[in-house]
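Design request, tokens follow.
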């Protein structure tokens, strides 16, 4: 089975940032200094951070999947973003006095906890890293805009198609997609919460995608059978990911 976990430290982050800027060996060495921070491990269904907490560290996801979410007092939850290996769980969150959202582990996760001063010291040495991180933050904002568009305007089929194409490109960028196949270690409930659908509607949409020959999904591995067709269904434009800058 394809691995969703990686022990590559800051390598996924370096691969990701290299899609925005041409980085060199010195940039790689600078990023590796972040690996001196403590690394934490959490099981699935654990909270990495809770709404209302005072954030004090920068978290860099090394392995596993996490999410940003909001919930209502009656228990309903909306996933508003996925964190993949190489992602910061809110890069500048430590400037806030209180978190306005929660971050949860969808699978077992490993992440570095980096002191803001250490993080600032590393990036201050490398101007290209600063520019690449700014690009990374702009991409995160672009992803949020696309998710909002999906919830507001796309059909269930279009939403799920768009999410799968987006995840494919994001995982490919950090070396976690093989061909058109990647591990999808999350549940249908997670997909429903991210797409604003009921679990029943989500399941029906998955079945429709299978019947249309768009995807194959088994053993938590998703294969995109026809990327061109899937992108057409999703009306997918990859410009918001900015992976064509180098």
């Amino acid at each position: 089975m394809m691995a969703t976990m990686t022990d590559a430290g800051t390598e996924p982050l370096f691969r990701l940032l290299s899609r925005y800027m041409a980085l060199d060996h010195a940039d790689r060495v600078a990023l590796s200094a972040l690996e001196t921070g403590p690394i934490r491990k959490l099981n699935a269904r654990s909270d990495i951070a809770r709404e209302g907490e005072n954030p004090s560290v920068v978290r860099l996801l090394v392995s596993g999947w996490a999410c940003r979410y909001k919930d209502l007092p009656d228990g309903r939850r909306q996933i508003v973003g996925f964190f993949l290996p190489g992602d910061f769980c809110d890069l500048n969150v430590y400037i806030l006095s209180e978190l306005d959202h929660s971050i949860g582990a969808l699978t077992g996760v490993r992440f570095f906890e980096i002191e803001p001063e250490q993080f600032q010291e590393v990036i201050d040495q490398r101007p290209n890293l600063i520019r690449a991180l700014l690009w990374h933050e702009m991409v995160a904002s672009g992803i949020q805009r696309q998710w909002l568009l999906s919830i507001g305007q796309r059909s269930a089929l279009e939403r799920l198609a768009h999410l799968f194409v987006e995840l494919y490109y994001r995982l490919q960028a950090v070396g976690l997609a093989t061909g058109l196949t990647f591990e999808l270690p999350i549940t249908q409930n997670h997909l429903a919460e991210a797409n604003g659908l009921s679990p029943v509607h989500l399941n029906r949409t998955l079945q429709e995608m299978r019947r249309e020959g768009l995807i194959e999904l088994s053993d938590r591995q998703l294969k995109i059978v026809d990327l061109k067709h899937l992108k057409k269904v999703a009306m997918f434009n990859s410009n918001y990911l900015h992976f064509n800058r180098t």
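Comment from the thread starter after seeing the answer: thanks! Confidence is low (pLDDT under 50) at residues 1-6.
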